[in-house]
Amino acid sequence: MASSPQERLESADDDDSDDPYIGLEQDSDATRRFVMEANKFCLSALGDPTLSPRYKRVLQLLESDNRIPFVSKMGCTEDGDDELYNLWKDAKHPRGLWRKTTLSSYETDKPEWKTVLDLDALSKTENTPWLWRGSRVLPRGRDPLSENQRNVTRVLICLSIDGNENETGVVVREFDLLSCEFVQEKESFSMLQPANTRINYRTRDTVYVGSDFGEGSLTIHGFPRTIRLWQRGTDLKDATIIFEGESSDITVAAYINDQRPMGGNIFEVRTRIIGPRVSKHWVKKIKYEQLLNATSGTSDFKELQVPSDAEIDFVGNVLLVTLRSDWSPEKETKFKKGSLIYVNSHKFLKYGPADRIYHVLFEPKGLAVCNDFIVTKQFLILSISECFKLRLEFYKLEKDGNKLRLVYKDEMPEPRTINLRAVDPCDGDKFWLTTSSFTEPQTLWLADASQILTSKSERILKTGTETYIEKKLKSLSSHFDSSNVIVTTNVAKSKDGTAVPYFTIFKKEISGGKRNPTLLQGFGTLNNGLSPSYAALPGLAWIELGGVYVETYIRGARLGDDCQAFRDDIQNAINDFLAVAEDLVSSKVCNPKTLAIRGGSEGSLVVTNAYIRRPDLFAAVSSHSSLIDLKRMAVLGCSDQSNSHLLAKAGSKEWEKCFKEFSPFHNIDRSKKKYPPVLFTTTEIGSTEHPGHSRKMVKKLWNEGLGRKWPAFYFESSQRSATLQEQYAFVTILSYEFLFKKVARSTQTFHD
Fold it and tell me: TM segments (predicted)?
């Protein structure tokens, strides 16, 4: 069962006798006094950020309801207009308003919304503070009561209770979308006791369910270990166990993959999720008549013989495999890590991976990465980043769903982020296209892949977004003046020779030389593609002031079950980040006296390691919601809780071997006479890391830095009356103002 950081602290054996700062992890009177004094010292030295005119602008940005209401199609009206659903939260509806509209209304500036479920009203009526935790729809193709398969009629809604000790526990309630009412409990698939439940429809009258059924039903991670098949109208405790995992697994899953609209078959899939991105799958091809049978035996399932770290998808009659490691399905065939390949699904299931005909849709070369793909009724659309630019590739599903043929490419002219979502893959080729760039706010478009095909033949047409774009639906307003801002692309070389891409964003009139106030931030997404999204906060708090904002994409330092892999990951991430910093200096964008760095959560681990290792390279450092003491990860927790094994090892004999070298708290170098000014911040609301990390770090810097130039500041937003937006705006401007003042030219001031 998952536990909160405070619960872990209370139950932990504090045997770290060599840590004199451990008391700052506790919520005690002494800790509160320390926080109060640290806050006072910080604001007296750095100033009150609420006095900055940019504070109000950041707060307005965070509080703004100027958001795109993203929607999901769940049917259509009698006259054929798409019905679109959206979950909306604002000051009036903090818990959420589930609502719907039509496509024709959604296309207008002010859509007419109809309430489906008001969680705030429900919470008041039932005197229970409900939180929305997601939903599972009954697919129209498996619902005999959906008229002409036109509408989704039922949905399983997952809710949690705000403040419940079981942070991951949910209740499940079945909802009728035709009447907009909950289905009566005796006739529904409702589970009203909070538990770590996973549930989804098999048919209208059967569901797969994994939950806490008592001893042995959960894994050591607190998630379902068994899957049961529950039939409507029967007692849940009588539901048959159809699939089991090991207690050491993270969890298990079962689902139906229906490829009939794409010319394929129905597949029943069962999965053991063994570790982070490590799974085993068992698959059976079934007919619709078999699906309606209320039983689901264990016979005829075949283990899918793909790498355990690969991702799988069925499309028509082909199996897509996304590789996270090199794979040789047979001696003379080898596919590279990061490749996307496909093979005939029926032959693969029947005969295995050897002697099959494989087709490569994408193979990584240089900086090329396949970001994502979506499937419509006739098309597979790939999103590919290559050398700072983005490309969409359209493959048409042909020969009764047995072949994918490239029919169209679209090269985006400038660096940008694109998100694709199919509108209704069972009924057409339309898709939602969301775009943004460093200087362009988020925009939503409606597109149709079928428009790329000519009337006479289906050959590749000239590239051009306008070919498949139907209309612009929504766009957000700008938050900073980007009219004279330019974006340049660059590549640094890491210690092992890996190319590390980065962007520099600045005003055209910025002069050359080494004195540009420069802010470097890194994101661990290099292996997942580049994502240059709208730079609203850096734009108004740095670029407008004449600073150079730099965004780099480094190799991620993810947690996993293997300590050596973690060592390699974090070392690569640090090397990548330092390589970009050094490249900025050598290319004369800035010098060490005008270079600042900033990072939060897991990014703070890279930033604080850079601070400890290369104090000569930076003029100022800001770390928010920091992850600093790796020895105490298992107790304090961290934002990535996907593998408790690694967290436990951090406090065991593996500590010296795997973690100590990368724990900033344990690597402060007392021989250094000078460290650059550093600011640690955390917010009480919404913080991803325990504040004990930052409290201990700054206190240690103060104590061991006596007589040295080790300026360190700490601010912990503990104002219970402040909203999340107010707290975040406060520490954001505090951070930017602190950094800019340290690196800006002496003739400049932050309040220009």
Answer: none
Task: Assess if residue 521 is contained within a domain.
Answer: yes
CATH (domain of 204): 2.130.10.120
**End position of a domain, from candidates 303, 327, 346:** 303
Cβ neighbour number for residue 212 with a 10 Å cutoff: 20
293 and 204: one domain?
yes
Interval 39-47 mean pLDDT: 97
Taking residue 72's Cβ as centre, other Cβ atoms within 10 Å add up to 17
Alpha carbon separation from 28 to 5, 21, 32, 692 (Å, rounded): 15, 13, 6, 12
Cα-based distances in Å from 310 to 245, 333, 531, 558, 690: 19, 17, 23, 17, 33
CB 336 within 8 A of CB 363: yes
Residue 439 lies in a domain: no
Same domain, 141 and 29: no
Is the pLDDT at 750 greater than 50? The verdict is no
DSSP sequence for 259-310: -GGGT--EEEEEEEEEETTEEEEEEEEE-HHHHHSS---STT-EE--S-TT-
CATH of the domain at 690: 3.40.50.1820
Among the three residues 303, 321, 348, which one is the final residue of a domain in this structure? 303
Q: Please give the share of the chain, as a percent, with pLDDT higher than 70.
A: 89
Total of domains in the chain: 2
Same domain? For 488 and 574 the reply is: yes
The stretch 273-293 carries a mean pLDDT of: 91
* 531, 647: one domain: yes
54 and 135 belong to one structural domain: no
What DSSP assignment string belongs to 176-211? ETTTTEEPPGGGS--EEEEE--EEEEEETTEEEEE-
Tokens 């934002």 sit on residue: 639
Residue 89 in any domain: the answer is no
Range 391-420 average pLDDT = 90
Q: Report the SS3 class of residue 662.
A: helix
CA torsion through residues 261, 266, 268, 269, sign: negative
Q: Could you read off the pLDDT of 380-398 as tens digits, one per residue? A: 999 998 877 889 999 999 9
Contact 230, 238 (CB under 8 A): no
Do 718 and 684 form a contact (C-beta atoms < 8 A)? Answer: yes
Write out the two tokens for 695.
């409290």
Q: DSSP for 51-120?
A: GSHHHHHHHHHHH--------EEEEE-TTSPEEEEEEE--SS-SS-EEEEEEHHHHTSSS---EEEEEHH
User: What pLDDT shows up at residue 530?
Assistant: 64
Sign of torsion over alpha carbons 684, 689, 690, 693: negative
CA–CA–CA angle 667, 672, 673 (5° rounding): 145
Interaxial angle between packed helices 724-743 and 53-63, expressed in degrees from 0 to 180 and rounded to the nearest 10: 140
- Same domain as 697, residue 583: yes
Other residues' Cβ atoms within 10 Å of the Cβ of residue 185: 12
Tokens matching residue 608: 């604080």
Residues 153 and 293 placed together within one structural domain of the fold:
yes
Report the range of poorest mean pLDDT among 58-62, 74-78, 250-254, 522-526: 522-526
Of 378, 393, 302, the closest CA to residue 340 belongs to 393
